[in-house]
Amino acid sequence: MPDSAPPTPSAVDTVRASLESRYSSATSLPTLSAMTSANGEENSMMATLRSLYLNPHTALAHTVQREDGTVTYAPGSRPYPPVRLLNPIEKKRVLVTGGAGFVGSHLVDRLMLMGHNVICIDNFFTGSKSNVAHWIGHPNFELIRHDVVDPILVEVDQIYHLACPASPVHYQSNPVKTLKTGFFGTYNMLGLAKRVKARFLLSSTSEIYGDPEEHPQKESYWGHVNCIGPRACYDEGKRVAETLAYSYQRQEGVDIRVARIFNTFGPRMNWNDGRVVSNFILQALKSENLSVYGDGQSTRSFQYVHDLVDGLLKLMNSDCDEPVNIGTQEEFTIDEFAQMVIDLVKKENGICESKVVYMDALQDDPQKRKPDTTKAKEWLDWEPQWKVIDGLRETVKYFKTQLEDEL
Ligand SMILES: O=c1ccn([C@@H]2O[C@H](COP(=O)(O)OP(=O)(O)O[C@H]3OC[C@@H](O)[C@H](O)[C@H]3O)[C@@H](O)[C@H]2O)c(=O)[nH]1
């Protein structure tokens, strides 16, 4: 054949070209942060996501017959949100443990909109079916009631292991179960990753740093945890979960990713979550006093849930197998944060008569917390896009709708 003749395409090239012309490409999908314009203009994915959590009863229309105390549920008339038609080579089977929980359900929404096949498993201890009800019956979605403390076998390409109560009130209510979830839950999911050769992402936490003596906290910091205190069931559970992940990597070659998640808030937090953001918003909306534990001088930095989901997606699809902090740099004392919530609710609602009341401090409550996120920026090109006030505004709207719905 003369040198100048064009190469004949192979059968594989022909199939690939035909697929590329018919389907969207997974890699071409920008994450939400990249799609949110700087002037705050709503983009279409953000609009779809909002419709899933700001409009109640998206999937199930229900009629409440209060007189005889019964509730009649009828199938909703809304179609499923539009999902990408992915090239089958790029379409992944993704398992999300704890997928019906607060963070898990937002991750499920994003993976579904991106066009992947999503298997959501949850024991519904703190998660809720209503968080993912809008996907039930969709051909790309499966919901399985299962507790990760017991093994399960499903064929998947990626595992996001989120299952574990995250609010101090919840994880301390049954500390032995929290430890079992931290150890056996992670052990079972790593065993599954090994068996089916899936990439495994562990949702770890800023709590592995305990009450830190380094500020802000870098990933290299080993932490300061009281191993016999009331928070230890969660802190040590997550620490051993990280140890398990790196042991499976060293010994079995499992492909792991570890996200150290800092305080996160947003729509779909439980009513009775007990964490400061949902407590303060609900108290302010009901014009009750805001309960500050201790002197209000401890600090936290709060990230909005969409930023966290961006970070998890970027980490899973990166080459970074070291732990990465995912959190925001905006740091507030709890006093400042309480005032911010009161001011916001006053502005949004016209009225808020709440004041701050001081209560007993919690044992081992970390006194300050703020991530160093240099690694996330350099390795993942990730930075939070939401200001706390913007996320709070949306979360207030969410809880307001929930409250109105209850009346
Ligand atoms: O009503 C409240 C609730 C909480 N607080 C205070 O607000 C601060 C934050 O408390 P939260 O319960 O929201 O969250 P914490 O920072 O203690 O724990 C969280 O850390 C990071 C995650 O991994 C977990 O989601 C969770 O364990 C603490 O100082 C707490 O004492 C109040 O002052 N009033």
List the SSEs and their pairings.
Blueprint (H helix, E strand, L loop, with lengths): L10 H12 L9 H4 L8 H10 L6 E6 L4 E6 L17 E5 L4 H13 L2 E6 L18 E5 L12 E4 L6 H6 L1 H22 L2 E7 L26 H21 L3 E6 L2 E2 L10 H10 L4 E4 L5 E3 L1 E2 H12 L6 E4 L4 E3 H16 L6 E4 L14 H7 L7 H19 L1
Parallel strand pairs: 3-4, 3-6, 4-5, 6-7, 7-8, 8-13, 9-12, 10-15
Antiparallel strand pairs: 1-2, 11-14
Helix pairs in contact: 4-9, 6-7, 8-10, 8-12, 10-12
Bound molecules: uridine-5'-diphosphate-xylopyranose.
Uridine-5'-diphosphate-xylopyranose binds next to helix 8 and strand 10.
Description:
The structure is a single chain. The protein has one domain: Rossmann fold (3-Layer(aba) Sandwich). It is α/β, with parallel strands linked by helices. The chain has a 7-stranded parallel β-sheet, with helices on both faces. A two-stranded antiparallel ribbon has the order 1-2. Strands 9-12 form a two-stranded parallel ribbon. Helix 8 crosses helix 12 and helix 10 crosses helix 12. The longest helix is centred in the middle third of the chain and has 22 residues. The chain is built from 12 helices and 15 strands. The termini are far apart. Bound molecules: uridine-5'-diphosphate-xylopyranose. Uridine-5'-diphosphate-xylopyranose binds next to helix 8 and strand 10.
